[in-house]
Amino acid sequence: MIRNVLGSIVALAGAAAAVLSPFRAWYDGRLGRHYRIGDLFTGVTGAHPGLFDSILLPFVFAAVLTVVGVALRSRLLVALAGVVVLGFTVLWMVRQGQAAGELTISGNGSGLDQGVAGAAGGGVLLLLGAALMSGRGGGRLGARADRNRPFKAPGSAEPDTWPPTREPGPSVQTSPWPEPEVDPYVGPPRDTGPDRSSPSGD
Question: Which residues of 17-39 are buried (b: 16+ CB within 10 A; e: fewer)?
Answer without folding.
Answer: bbbbbbebbbbeebbbbbbbbeb
